[in-house]
Design brief:
heterodimer; A: alpha/beta; Rossmann fold; 2 domains; five-stranded mixed sheet; 12 helices; 41% helix; globular; B: alpha/beta; 11 helices; binds thiamine diphosphate; binds iron/sulfur cluster
């Protein structure tokens, strides 16, 4: 077991990336994730690894793409407006099937918005965010511990499927300090016959997304579809917090789920059976598990730090079997425990 | 008497049909790169970053490991590749729209960092692949699909001189502008490319070779007229020559 330390979210994610063997990190400043760049700037050179501050998020993510295409473990991090720029390369990374890790510590939007935590990037990050048919694998940690664990895992999973894995945190998680046990290296090692290392003793090979010849792109899209199906079958993660005996199920992720758990404990003290269903992977979305968890319940309430983005996926999963309500606070606000509690109380027993 | 081979396809160039138009400069520059890689015995240690532009399929012709970059991002992709594969020869091959419009930031900053890469810049004064729109290097008065009345420099600005622009930076090691409009200039262009690749192998840093090149198709002329236009119209505005040569600077300091 690693030692238990008090770390900020940004520091825990950075340290986990180091433990995962990230050899190339490309930065561009934006609040509230600047501690990641600062941490990596200090540590990477000492470990003989590469830290580079790029001229933009666009460049930083293309540097990740270039380094990762040679088989290196590469990462970049940013916050909402910066992720909007990085997404240009997300499509290329998906099409060319290069493993990459990106952290988004979401802040309020649209535009520059503000610098407090928010969940306004669900649609942008979970629904692709670049052109074409593709998915990023999106993890939504709720605690500093989980942020560290998922960051470590993100590197392995990215290589396993040759996909971009995205850590979707927010400004609160990024800035909060919590005790955390640093994860151990997983020992996972992927073969990378596709990596660009110069055509020595083998035919030259290419990493690209362009598929011009008649029908070839459709075949490639079908191949990606198969991969996405395999990920949906194997990589879904969620937490079931007191849902089994509950009448009311709160569906919520990341920082908002912490509030909801407190509300559930409140409600249970008052004899009201509520639970939290928390997707940990946002894509693949735990639709099947969610449908099962809410079957026969009286009410579903989706709680987000947004005007309502994940709620669309919740409604699709629940498919009318149970009424789905929504409570959200946009613009960097966090739903209050009392707000959530009262909303559930309003449904009656 | 045995025949003497004067001209042949370099081993580093694949024996395939190219999609380039007759009289296009891209094919000539590909061949020069191929010859240099052969002579330097570097084919197996090269990673080519292809642009978005007519040379998007460059890796189908030059027989080396290749990676596609998003439009304009080739220097950033090359930076990532090189930082992870320091002992490889990394070439960023780009057109003028790619390098000097959408990719201006990536171009300047890779140069400013002195990335140990080689950038080959094909300046044909137009966007070739998309069918002949104005490029940052389109000449004053030049008619294109998006300047049907000729480039009005008071409205859209003057053509940008990449070598001169990059020559304001401290870090670049070697900057030269060459042309491929006739055989003597092609021979010079090859020397420049060879020099730029050698600089990288020697770990000297960033080298930039601008090649004045023909796009007869989108200029609406035949191959010879295209070559003449490079000589008569482009060259006076884009003077050929070495703009930066830190080897020479070093040598003169020593003397
Ligand atoms: C983001 C993006 N914008 C626009 C395009 C369309 N496009 C393809 S090639 C090109 C420019 C090509 O011109 P240049 O860089 O001068 O190269 P050339 O074809 O002349 O060699 C453009 C704009 C694209 N592929 N991607
Ligand atoms: S359009 Fe122009 S740049 Fe493109 S291949 Fe033809 S001649 Fe060459």
């Amino acid at each position: 077991m690693g030692e238990r330390v008090l770390l900020k979210g940004n520091e825990a994610a950075s340290e986990a990336a180091l433990i995962a063997g990230c050899t190339h990190y490309f930065a561009y400043p934006i609040t509230p994730q600047n501690e990641i760049s600062a941490y990596m700037a200090k540590r990477m050179p000492k470990l003989n690894r590469t830290f580079l501050q790029a001229e933009s998020e666009i460049a930083a993510c293309n540097m990740v793409y270039g380094a990762a295409a040679t088989g290196a473990r590469a990462m970049t991090s940013s916050s909402s407006p910066g992720i909007a720029l990085k997404q240009e390369s997300f499509g290329y990374i998906a099409g060319a099937e290069v493993p990459a890790v990106v952290i988004n510590m979401m802040r309020g939007g649209p535009g520059l918005g503000n610098i407090s935590g928010s969940q306004g990037d669900y649609n942008m990050c979970v629904k692709g965010g670049s052109n074409g048919d593709f998915h990023n694998l999106v993890y939504a940690p709720a605690t500093v511990q989980e942020l560290a664990d998922l960051t470590l895992k993100a590197f392995d999973v990215a290589e396993k499927y040759r996909i971009l894995t995205l850590i979707l945190g927010d400004g609160y998680l990024a800035q909060m300090s919590e005790p955390c046990v640093l994860p151990e290296p997983s020992g996972f090692k992927a073969e990378k016959p596709w990596a660009l290392t110069g055509a020595e003793g083998r035919p030259a090979q290419v990493i690209n997304s362009l598929r011009l010849a008649d029908g070839v792109l459709e075949v490639h899209n079908r191949h990606l579809e198969e991969k996405y199906k395999a990920i949906e079958a194997a990589e879904v993660m969620f937490e079931n917090f007191h849902c089994d005996d509950a009448d009311f199920v709160l569906v919520t992720y990341g920082t908002a789920s912490r509030v909801c758990k407190a509300a559930v404990m409140n409600l249970r003290k008052q004899g009201i059976k509520a639970g939290v269903f928390r997707p940990i992977t946002l894509w693949p979305f735990p639709s099947v598990a969610l449908a099962a968890a809410v079957a026969g319940k009286k009410q579903v309430l989706t709680v987000e730090m947004s005007l309502g983005q994940m709620v669309a996926d919740v409604r699709l999963a629940v498919n009318g079997a149970v009424p789905v309500d929504f409570l959200g606070r946009p613009g960097g606000a966090v739903p209050m425990v009392d707000e959530v509690t009262e909303r559930v109380l309003s449904y009656g027993r | 008497m045995a025949d003497k081979i004067l001209y042949t396809r370099p081993d580093s160039i694949r024996d395939v049909k190219s999609h380039y138009c007759p009289g296009c400069g891209h094919g000539i520059v590909h061949k020069l790169i191929g010859e240099c890689l052969d002579e330097m015995n570097c084919r197996e240690k090269t990673i080519l970053v292809a642009p978005v532009g007519c040379a998007v399929l460059a890796y189908n012709y030059i027989d080396v490991d290749g990676i596609e970059a998003p439009h304009g991002r080739a220097p950033a992709v090359a930076t990532g590749v090189k930082r992870a594969q320091k002992d490889k020869l990394v070439i960023s091959y780009q057109g003028d729209g790619d390098l000097l419009a959408i990719g201006t930031a990536e171009t300047i900053h890779a140069a400013n960092r002195g990335e140990n890469i080689t950038v080959i810049f094909i300046n044909n004064a137009i966007y070739g692949m998309t069918g002949g729109q104005m490029a940052p290097t389109t000449m004053e008065g030049q008619v294109t699909k998006t300047t049907p009345y000729g480039r009005d420099v008071h409205d859209v600005g003057y053509p940008i001189r990449a070598c001169e622009l990059l020559n304001t930076l401290v870090a670049p090691y070697y900057i030269e502008r060459v042309s491929v409009h006739d055989v003597p200039h092609i021979v010079k262009a090859k020397k420049a490319i060879r020099r730029a690749l050698q600089n990288q192998i020697d770990g000297k840093g960033y080298s930039f070779i601008e090649v004045l090149s023909m796009c007869p198709t989108n200029w609406g002329v035949d191959a010879q007229t295209g070559a003449d236009w490079v000589r008569d119209v482009m060259q006076p505005y884009y003077p050929l020559g070495v703009f930066r040569d830190k080897d020479a600077e070093e040598a003169s300091r020593v003397q």
